[in-house]
Inverse folding.
């Protein structure tokens, strides 16, 4: 976390001088200390992020692909004169163990056009879908499969 704060310090200053580089060390250290003590952040979280970084990047790429596919599908519903949305509310359990994973899944569902997370309690989701077929396979979606692989 210290390194990220230090890099952010350099980027936000807009130029690199010896004074900025040297003064950034204690400032980044102080912010890191506050983050660890007050917020409760730990180095174990850093290790988890680094360990899961390749998986998180794959997740981001999958999210972008799914958003694009869903956007095209929703455009078809909106643009075709005969097509009508048939909204449905579905409930499912993700089976994901951590709050982080479930919140990430809920946000991903909401970001995907045609679906919206109405309620999240533990691993129980209530989702509004523009059409019935958008609800099919939510509990075994690529998002859930990638999140289950996270440590």
């Amino acid at each position: 976390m210290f390194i990220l704060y230090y890099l952010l310090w350099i980027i936000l200053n807009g130029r690199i001088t010896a004074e900025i580089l040297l003064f950034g060390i204690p400032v980044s250290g102080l912010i890191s200390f506050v983050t660890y003590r007050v917020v409760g952040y730990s180095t174990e979280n850093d290790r988890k992020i680094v360990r899961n970084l390749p998986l998180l990047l794959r997740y981001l790429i999958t999210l972008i692909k799914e958003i694009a596919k869903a956007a095209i599908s929703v455009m078809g519903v909106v643009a075709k004169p005969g097509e009508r949305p048939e909204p449905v509310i579905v409930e499912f359990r993700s089976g994901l163990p951590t709050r982080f994973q479930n919140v990430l899944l809920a946000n991903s569902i909401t970001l995907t056009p045609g679906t919206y997370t109405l309620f999240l309690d533990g691993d129980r989701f209530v989702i509004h879908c523009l059409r019935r077929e958008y609800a099919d396979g939510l509990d075994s979606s690529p998002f859930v499969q990638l999140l289950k692989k996270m440590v």
In short: The chain is about 65% helix and 15% strand.
